[in-house]
Amino acid sequence: MARRPAPPSASPERRSPQAAARAGRRSSAAGIDARGWVGGIRLSGFMVIMLSLVILGAWVLVPTLGTYLDQRQKIAALEQSVQVSKDRIAELELERERWNDPAYITTQARERLYYFRPGEVVYLVDDDLDPAAVPRDPEPVSDTIEEKPSDWAPQLLRSLTAAGLARTATEAPAGSSGEPAQGDQTPAP
């Protein structure tokens, strides 16, 4: 068995020259002397066994933990997929309920198949507007209450100006001769 070294004595005269040099280096150096620190570590048998058990536990548990986290992510994705499917099923059931209503069926037959009842006159309007001139969908209605200005005169002026400058669905011909206007690109009949 190895002998433990004797503790250093308190008197400075009894120090070895190597110990004095080490102490001088420690006090003068800004960093820590790693050799002195590593040399001061003593490993017992119990400590080696515990360290090996910790390493073995980490080696066994890390892949298991990774598998667990991967499975939790898959479960969350599948639950979200199930929720989307349930929402789609609810929409389809609602549409099936609508098809049981005779008024809805009549409306769909008129819109999709252009059916009409005997004696009715049906007008089909061809959409001749430029796609850029078609108004956009309105913004969704907000839940907040906003106070509008109470001065109505500038608003009326802006409304009249906007109405006067707006493009109409069909432009009037420039002359009475039936010739198209200068900027009109529609072919003459």
Structural key phrases:
single chain; 189 residues; mainly alpha; 52% helix; FtsL/DivIC
Would you write up a description of this structure?
The structure is a single chain. This protein has 189 residues and is mostly helical. The chain contains five helices and no strands.
Share in helix: 40-55%
Span from first to last CA?
A: 117 Å
Residue-averaged pLDDT, rounded?
77
- The helix/strand class is mainly alpha
Q: Major β-sheet, in short?
A: none
Percentage beta strand:
under 5%
The 3D shape can be described as elongated
Number of DSSP strand runs:
0
The helix/strand series, from N terminus to C terminus, equals: HHHHH
**Rg:** 44 Å
Uncertain spans, ≥5 residues at pLDDT below 50?
176-181
Q: Please report the number of helical segments.
A: 5
Protein name: Septum formation initiator family protein
Biased composition (Pro residues): 1-10
Keywords: Membrane, Transmembrane, Transmembrane helix
Biased composition (Low complexity): 17-27
